[in-house]
Every structure is written in C-alpha cells, then in structure tokens.
Specification:
The complex is a heterodimer of chains A (about 120) and B (about 500).
Chain A lengths: L17 H42 L1 E2 L2 E2 H45 L4
Antiparallel strand pairs in A: 1-2
Chain B lengths: L7 H25 L11 H13 L2 H14 L4 H25 L4 H9 L2 H34 L3 H22 L5 H23 L6 H4 L1 H11 L12 H15 L3 H9 L3 H36 L7 H6 L1 H8 L4 H39 L5 H24 L5 H14 L1 H10 L5 H21 L4 H6 L6 H17 L6 H11 L6
Classes of the chains: A mainly alpha (about 120), B mainly alpha (about 500).
C-alpha cells in the first residue's frame, strides 16, 4: 500500500522498482543528449560569431551550407530521430527481457523448482 | 500577392486534389470500414507516423516557416528545432504513459487523473482557446492562398476560405469520409518538395537533395549581393532564440490535438515507433522549408527587388512567390497552393471538431445544461462548431502576426498549461487537483500577460514574450503545481496506486 508520505511514492526524481528505475535512467540519458545538442550547437555558433565574427562562420561550410545552418537545420532534427530510435530499441529490448523474466518465474513456480 | 486575376490552372489542381482525397476517403470507408478507428487508418507503424505527420502539417509548416525564414533568417531555425525537438519530449515522457491511462481527450485525462470536474472544465476551456488561436493561423494561410487563387482582397478571401472549409467539413461528414492519412502525407510531401527540386535544378544547384542544394544560394547572396547570413545572432539574442525554441517544444508536448494521437493507437510499441516515423516525415518538410525563404531572397536580389516590400502577407506567401520569381510553370505553383490548402484544411477540420467535442461533452453538460441528453450534446457540438468557425473568421480579419507567430502563441499556451498538467500528472502521483488548477490558471495568466502588461511592466514582457513565454513559464507553472500540491491534501489513494502500478508498473509500492 502507498503511504501518505510522498517520499515512498515513485516519481521521476525518485523512481521505484526495477522497471521504472531503468526506464527513467534511459529517459534521462536521452534528454541529456537532446538538451546538450540543442544548447551546445547554439553556444558553438554564438561563440564563433562573438570571437571570430563572420569570417570563420563564412568559411566553415558543409554542402555549401554555413556550418550553423547545417548543424541546426539539418543535423539536429536528424539527431532527434536517432535519439528516438535509440530510446525505442532500448524500450523494446527491455520489454522483451521483462516478459522473459516473468515467464521464467511462472514456469519455475509451476514446476515447483524454487520451492 | 493578390494579382487581381483568377488562377484557373491552380484552381483546377486544388479541386482535383480535394476530389482525389475525398474519393480515397470514401473508398477506405467502403472497403475496410471495420478496420478503421475514427482517427483513420492505422496500417502499421509507418501508417501511424504518416498519420502523425499529416495531422501535424499545417499552414504553419507549409507556408509560415518559409515566410519567417525569409524575414528573420537564422532565427527561424528556432521554429525548426522547436517543432521537431518537441517530439523527443513527447516520446520519452508521455507517449507510452498516456496510452496506459486509457482516456480519449485532454479534458478526459485531466478529469480522471486529478479527480476534479473543475480541472476538467478548465482543461476543456484551455483546449478551446488553443483551438481558436491555432485556427486563426490556419485561416490566415487559407485566406492568403484563396486571395491569390481567385484574385480577391484579403478580407473577402477570409470569408470565401471559411465558407469553403465549413462546406468541406460538412460534406465530408455527411458522406462519412475517412481521412486517408498516408495518401495525404504523400500529397503534402510531393507538393512541397517537387517545386523545390525544380527550382534548384533550374538554378543549376544540387537538385537531387534540394535540402542541401540551397546552400549555394546562400553563398551567392553573400558573395554577389553582400547579404550576410553567417552571423546568426547579429539581430537577436541567445535568450530569444532559446525562449522560442523551448516554448515550441513544450507546446508540442502539450497540444491537445497532438496528444490525442496517442490515446487511440492500438499498442504501446506501435505508438512509440509511430512517433519516430512521424518525426522523420515531419523533418523531411522542415529540412526543406528554409530553402524557399533563401531562394526567394536570391530571386529578389537578382531582380533588384526590395526585400519584404509586400509586408507580412507577402512573406507568408513566400513559398509561392519563390516559385513564381523562379519562373516555374504555373502548374507547379498550383501544386504548392493545393498542398498548402490541404494542410490547412485537414488541420483546421480536426481542430474545430476537437473544440466542438470539448464544448459538447465537457462544458455544455456541466456548465450550461446539466440535464442534457445525447441528442442535445450532438446539437450543441454542431452549433458550437459553427460559432467557433465564425469566431475564428472574425479574428482572422485582423490577425496579430504572421502564420508562424500566431501558431507559436498557441504553442506557448499549451506549453504553459497542458504540458505541466500532463508531465506532473504522469510522473508525480502526489500532484493533486488544487495543484493542477493553480498551475493551469497561472499558465493562462503567463501566456496572456504580454498582451496587457507590456507597457506597464516591460521586464515582464521581456521575460515572457507572447510567442515564447513557456521557456520560463512552464518551469514556473510546474513550481506552482508542486508547491500548491504539497500545501494541500494528497489525491486519493486509488489514483496514486493507479499511477504507480498501472502507469509505471511499480509492483513494490
């Protein structure tokens, strides 16, 4: 039973149980990758502009696109897709492992091996 | 971009495209009626993704993004990242869990999770406000295209566009047309990318992937016309960029019509993989949209035209202008117009019907007629649908910004209200009805504060810009929700057990 104290309840900050803990761990990793890429690319462009003006940003191109256009407009959306694929693959694997674990437990209990 | 002449070929293309979509919808209904839910065809994960993408693609994606890019250059990248990055939040924090609640609308979710009719009613009202504002952006897009197609002024075009839209929804409803979302997405991507490939081919650029090919236009603009795109933050600040970007991301994860996609999918794994496909399909459009803005600037420079001589209306039509200035045949411009109208119509139809449903099920029987029968609710939904369409039409007569900016305001409201309500509702069982009511009201105040506080409190307007208020607003609302929940009684044990055991599978709680 859940007590009235919020300390014992599962939350994003304090996940409980193996399933939730591992799920929250991978969510935090994905969100870290998401946040760092967004902030990092903009800080990179900002610092280049602040320190070297347009000269370096003009010369740095990828497929003729200025580097900040390519990083933000092309790579970041692709990175989001990759992050989502990684998350889904992990979740799929985790779901299969969980269901296999519970199946093993049920088989053992039925045959009485763990008694 | 009003030319004063009727664009006959584009009108025929638009008419044919709508006929194809309606006939395809009818065929779907007759052939596989039992296999479809009311959300459309769920044939596989790619189908779900196409559904998510076609549901998402609106006038803001089709017209607005190119327009804002044409005017503001690199700053518009905040829209690209905001409208794609939000799907990461949606996937990892909400998509799976929402499905486990087994509810069908945002007010349903809020009412069930927070066990409060008041919270449910506020959520319904917020959904309607978001619908109203989001639809203004769509109506503006429809009106601009109709104005160009029929050679009429903007205000009559708003009226004609509204009449066409309402007729389309009524006829589709009467015929029982099911949206063929895969076909619709296919139509949208072809009508958007094909003219761009032709433009880049005509310019001698790398046309196979015009998403990269337009880089040569940036170089040409810089070397020959002195237009420097390489200083991303020369005319803006990092704060403004991040504020807009994160507001759009929080809004994406809080928009009722986006969240509704996940209540109805058949399985949790399908829901998750559907998001990935949906994001990829959306990214295909967003990788391309900036190209229209850049190419329009290039054609202007080559022809010695003044930048943005036509104001906001012309900027919102820049995708069509780029095709015209680039000398593409009229049928390709017709394709673009058809894609834009199709995107705006489908989004608006879904939004208006969602708004009408919110009114008839959450507001009418609770606040207006407590003894309403099912028939009364149906009539209420139909009447409110028309009232909503008329209200949007009137607001569209004098819109307060460009398509992308109006849409961003709707995202800011969703990011300040619905997003925190769902986030804490899913991830913190201790959040209670007092918390969510205080939070949603605070979110509404923050969203609308820039409208009436900008002169009295300039610093508040700077911190909470109209289009970007959720960057600081959403964390503030979450704090309000946490504090007010902790200061009041916890929610019932039943709902806390449900969140712990059924949503997060914590069997040891």
């Amino acid at each position: 039973m859940i007590s009235n104290s919020s300390d014992t309840e599962p939350s994003f900050i304090k996940p409980q149980g193996a399933t939730m803990r591992s799920e929250v761990r991978v969510i935090k990793l994905v969100l870290a990758g998401w946040f760092l890429a967004i902030v990092g690319f903009q800080l990179f462009a900002y610092l280049l502009e602040a320190n070297y003006s347009a000269l370096l940003l003009t010369d740095l191109t990828f497929f003729n696109l200025p580097i900040q256009f390519w990083l933000t407009g092309q790579l970041l959306p692709l990175w989001f897709v990759i992050l989502c694929v990684i998350f889904n693959l992990w979740m799929d694997r985790h779901t299969i492992q969980s269901s296999e674990g519970s199946l093993r437990f049920r088989i053992k209990a039925k045959t009485g091996e763990d008694e | 971009m009003t030319t004063g002449t009727i664009q006959l070929i584009p009108i025929v293309i638009v008419a044919v495209m709508f006929a194809v979509l309606i006939l395809s919808g009818l065929r779907n209904r007759i052939r596989n009626a039992s296999e479809y839910s009311f959300g459309g065809n769920y044939a596989g994960r790619m189908g779900i993704g196409a559904g998510i993408a076609s549901n998402w693609m609106s006038a803001a994606s089709f017209l607005g993004l190119a327009g804002i890019f044409y005017l503001k250059g690199y700053f518009a990248m905040a829209y690209v990242i905001g409208w794609t990055g939000g799907y990461v939040l949606l996937l990892v924090l909400m998509a799976t869990q929402i499905r486990r609640f087994g509810k069908f609308t945002t007010p349903d979710f809020v009412g069930f999770r927070y066990e409060s009719d008041a919270a449910r009613t506020i959520a319904a009202l917020i959904s309607i406000v978001i619908t109203l504002i989001y639809c203004v952006a769509q109506f503006r897009g429809i009106a601009l295209v109709v104005s160009w197609l029929f050679g009429i002024e903007y205000i009559p075009a708003v009226v004609v566009g509204t009449s066409l839209l309402v007729s389309f929804i009524v006829v589709s409803g009467a015929l029982g047309v099911t949206r063929n979302q895969k076909l619709q997405y296919f139509v949208l991507i072809i009508t958007f990318i094909l003219p761009l490939m032709l433009l880049t081919h005509k310019l001698g650029y790398f046309w196979v992937l015009p998403q990269f090919g337009y880089g040569e236009a940036i170089t040409e603009l810089q070397q020959q016309f002195g237009l420097n795109w390489s200083e991303p933050f020369a005319n803006t600040s990092l704060f403004k960029w991040f504020a807009l970007c994160f507001t759009l991301m929080f809004g994406t994860a809080g928009l009722p019509h986006v969240l509704s996609r996940f209540y109805m999918v058949p399985g949790i794994r399908d829901a998750r993989w559907g998001v990935v496909w949906g994001l990829f399909f959306i990214a295909l459009i967003y990788w391309s949209a900036p190209a229209y803005g850049v190419l329009a600037r290039l054609f202007e420079a080559r022809n010695g035209l003044l930048h943005n001589a036509g104001g906001g209306d012309a900027a919102d039509m820049i995708a069509l202008s780029a095709a015209t200035l680039g000398g593409l045949p009229i049928w390709t411009i017709g394709l673009l117009a058809a894609g834009a109208i199709s995107a705006a119509f489908s989004t608006t139809a879904g939004l208006l019907m969602t708004g009408a449903a919110s009114f008839s099920f959450d507001i009418y029987p609770r606040l207006i007629n407590r003894n309403a029968s099912e028939l009364d609710k149906t009539y209420a939904a139909k009447a409110f649908f028309l009232i909503l369409a008329l209200a949007v039409m009137v607001l569209t007569f004098k819109p307060w910004g460009m398509i992308a900016e109006i849409t961003a305001f709707a995202f800011a409201i969703a990011g300040n209200t619905i997003f925190p309500a769902f986030l804490l509702g899913i991830w913190w069982p201790r959040t209670n009805s007092t918390g969510v009511i205080c939070g949603m009201l605070t979110g509404l105040f923050i969203s609308f504060a820039p409208l009436f506080l900008s002169t009295a409190l300039p610093s508040a307007a700077w911190l909470f810009p109209l289009t970007s208020s959720a960057f600081i607003g959403a964390p503030l609302v979450i704090t309000v929700m946490v504090v007010s929940s902790l200061l009041t009684a916890p929610p019932s044990e039943a709902i806390r057990l449900f969140v712990s055991r059924d949503v997060h599978e914590c069997r040891n709680s």
